Amino acid sequence: MSAGSSEDQGNMGAGMDYSIEPAGDQIRISVNGDLDAAMVQDMRAAVDEFVGDSRTLVIDLSRVDFIDSAGVGLIVRAYKARQAAKAAMAIVGASGQPKELLRTTQIDRLIPFHASLDEVTRA
Q1: What is the pTM for the complete model shown?
Q2: Per-residue pLDDT, 118
Q3: Assigned CATH class of 8-122
Q4: What DSSP element (H or E) covers 96?
Q5: How far is it, in rounded angstroms, from Cα 28 to Cα 21?
């Protein structure tokens, strides 16, 4: 990851990667691959840099096929920090197992879910 750049790129090996991109009034975290313990370990410090930011934190899960408890934990950790900062958060593009797990754990009651980035911008 390159500190201080407008876009931080995560681990590109082992079939997992992510990006964090400031975009106007949003910070967009896009994940590609499984949001599991290995990915979370790689992402945690980068995500922590932005959780106190006043812009809306948008987690794009449209390219995620699987989330485990570590992934849920990362989302909950970000949510709690966003609440403390009185800042908004949204999840975009969750489907399949990730969406089902986030609904089962009732995260969808805490964090708004949207089908697309356009929906977040209009909300």
Answers
A1: 0.84
A2: 87
A3: alpha beta
A4: helix 96-104
A5: 5
